[in-house]
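Support reply, case 0932

Customer input (verbatim):
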Amino acid sequence: MSDNKAVLSLMAHPDDAEFMCAGTLVLLHKKGWDIHIGTMTSGDCGSAELGREEISRIRRNEAAVSAKILDGSYHCLECDDVFIMYDRQTLVKAIKLLRQVKPAVVFAPSPSDYMVDHEITSKVVQTACFACGMPNIEIEGVDPFEPIPHLYYADALESVDILGNNIEPKILVDITSVMDTKEKMLCCHESQRNWLMVHHGMDEYVLSMKRFADDRGNKIHVKYAEGFRKHLGHGYPHDNILRSELGDLVFER
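Our regenerated output:
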């Protein structure tokens, strides 16, 4: 078991965590973990009718309400939607957040995904995990911490890369028992139903999430699951802490 029971999901946009890893966050919360949900942006381009400032205010509030369901905290790094950069300024923001939260577990977007914002966020989070303990990266108000967190990549949307090739998870978490809470968290993001209908031609916000979780569940013969791949590069922890914490709900392939 981990002594430091803080987990951070750092995704690109509000509602990304609810789609891709909220079920696992619920299970960790039930095990006594402190939940932190972070986004690189406030989703300031996520509306066809509202201006950036107004939709940002709405989406920050929706994300905070969702995190509160797990007694969690919401953090926004205030990058611009569609313009997330892998640069010094962005990396410093991410490293600072990790040093504030001191997570033992971090969830990030898939390194290959349908949107470059997700892919850049994945790289930023990877580097932030590696750099959060480096004392020569000095950031006012926060101190370095060790060890490097366990880093898990969530599934790509629809489980494919930009060329349509399947991306298979190596780890699957049975979230059947907490699907109601995952759905409740996703439904906090009310502003996105209309946006997705206009921009993506999709009016199935919750149903699409459930279909994907059902597909992942079929792989391990349960109703609903979430899929992950663990970062196993040099310096990162290689043991599967999700398995240690969640036991038989975690399947490795």
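We compared this against your earlier run and they match. Two observations from our side: The mean pLDDT is 94. Residues 6-252 form a domain with the Rossmann fold fold (CATH 3.40.50.10320). Please reopen the case if you see a mismatch on your end.
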